[in-house]
Amino acid sequence: MYNDNPTLEGIDKKVDESKQGEVFFQENASEKGKKFYIESYGCQMNFSDSEIVASILGESGFSPTRNMEESDLILINTCSIREKAELTVRKRLRIFDKVKRQRPGMLVGVLGCMAERLKTKFLDEEKLVDIVVGPDAYRDLPGLVAGAEEGNKGVNVFLSREETYADISPMRLDSNGVSAFISIMRGCDNMCSFCVVPYTRGRERSRNAFTIVAEATNLWERGYKEVTLLGQNVDSFKWENPETGKVVNFAELLIMVAEVSPDMRVRFSTSHPKDITDDVLYAIRDHENICNYIHLPVQSGNSRVLKLMNRTYDRPWYDAKVKRIYEIIPDCAISSDIITGFCTETEEEHQDSLSVIEFARYSMSYMFFYSERPGTLAARKYEDDIPLATKKRRLTEIIELQNQISKEENAKDVGKTFKVLIEGDSKKSDQDFKGRNSQNKMCIFPKKAGLKKGDYTYVKILESNSATLKGEIV
Ligand code: SAH
Ligand code: SF4
Ligand code: F3S
Fold first, then answer.
1. Which of 63, 131, 195, 463 has its CA 20 to 30 A from that of 28?
2. Residue at 456 is within a domain
3. In angstroms, rounded to a whole number, what is the distance separating the alpha carbons of residues 184 and 421?
């Protein structure tokens, strides 16, 4: 899910492509009034937040543009997860500065996790930044912009215990019209020792379940066919109805959303292995439209390293969870996040991360080498002692094995027929459609008259590689 590489081309918000710089646009954006341009980096939550920001700015008279040269306000929604993510943002700020010099009066705002982490430091270090807004302060954006227009640089990085933007209907400007993200919670109460998110996103809070169902219903009525429920740890979703006192947990929420329509697919991300319950697995098994795909990041395959990472499960516990998933949902695909070269990780312990890939038979993984983040538990307690070359070599080994496993798993799909939701033309040819099966695997197949983006079709798989399945409509 996490690519620190910037590109302005990625306007397709699917899971494996969504970590790229992204521009919102609207074909018929109002010619009058002020325009904003926004780029997003980091996780899906950040992309989803940009849609909230777009909505808030829309309410105050700004319209989005894809062209930064014609904008009055450039916003960059930033990520702090690894050092590289932050370096990318700093590079973009240099580029914005050049544009700004050509357009007097133009403002530049930094949003998101890096804004939260660096706070006022941004204004001191980066003279080109006018506004700094943390993830819980987006409602204040119009006010801060107005202040900055008067020459008062503005910062709001207040982290809230309540804010969920529950009442804001996100502006889906860049969407393919088929799938959309719905934020169901914010923040994170886990303290994984390597992770900056609890510091940049604050305490975990769940959104009003009825507003989530209302958003899903609205999307369905507008023709969307797939929603992805988003949170750093969706399995700990817990919302108490203030009127009845009844608590809605994640399994119940999944079912409520699945019942919006049997023809609307429901996905979710991310699941923490310690919190995913059998009830969630039964909900997936019992509802055809809740997709058979779980992103279950392991981080490391070794119990001692997991303890240092403060993941609160060990290897046998994780393996048992994987077994349970395949027991209840035999055709489930599982994917993962893995970090190599965490503090003190030995070669034997690295071998355990290789073996968990074999054991879990992940359909795919997002893999990273450890990047120390200032202020985290690991940065304070442990020495970042694995040489970069070793971290990278271990990462290469992990990637090679994962590719091999993905290839083997995809090869098992040859000959099978899947229900696929058509997302549009394949990247390589407008003669082919692309779409995903329930397991979240990308399928490519020749078009057939009468079928269009947003339709379901059945595809028989004829060939495969480590990334895609190719087939024909049956
Ligand atoms: N909430 C999700 C993950 C959010 S961060 C979860 O708990 O799984 C996304 C991924 O970035 C993490 O799963 C982890 O693999 C990676 N990551 C986080 N901090 C990192 C760091 N300091 N160095 C390298 N990778 C990191
Ligand atoms: Fe970070 Fe852990 Fe929270 Fe995920 S669960 S966001 S890795 S602290
Ligand atoms: Fe990055 Fe913040 Fe998401 S640090 S991964 S944008 S929560």
1. 131
2. yes
3. 23
pTM for the structure as a whole: 0.93
Distance (Å, whole) CA 289 – CA 173: 25
397: domain CATH number is 3.80.30.20
Question: Model confidence over 201-240: pLDDT tens digits?
Answer: 999 999 999 999 999 999 999 999 999 999 999 999 999 9
149 and 14 in one domain? yes
Work out whether strand 226-230 and strand 265-269 pair parallel, antiparallel, or are unpaired.
Answer: parallel
Ligand 1 — pocket residues by CB below 6 A? 2, 81-82, 194-195, 197, 232-233, 270, 272, 297, 299, 337, 339, 368, 370-371, 373
**What pLDDT was estimated at residue 125?**
73
- Alpha helices (H) in 287-417, listed in sequence order: 303-309, 315-328, 347-360, 377-381, 388-411
Residue to substitute in 200, 233, 300, 309 for testing ligand 2 pocket (most ligand atoms within 8 angstroms of CB): 233
The residue range of the domain holding 452 is 417-473
- Pick the residue with more confidence: 19 or 196? 196
Residue 111: in which H helix or E strand, if any? strand 107-112
Residue 454's nearest CA partner among 292, 266, 293, 265 is 265
Q: How much of the chain exceeds pLDDT 90, in percent?
A: 88
- Calculate how far, in angstroms, residue 377's C-alpha sits from the geometric centre of ligand 2: 12
Give the confidence band of 123 by pLDDT, cuts at 50, 70, 90.
confident
Confidence bin at 124 (pLDDT 50/70/90): confident
CATH number at residue 450: 2.40.50.140
Statement to judge: residues 143 and 201 lie in one domain: no
pLDDT, position 406: 98
Nearest to 368 by CA among 44, 83, 74: 83
The label of the residue with tokens 């392991």 reads: 298
Give the distance (Å) from ligand 3 centre to CA of residue 136.
Answer: 13
Domain count, the chain: 3
Residue 409 has pLDDT above 90, yes or no: yes
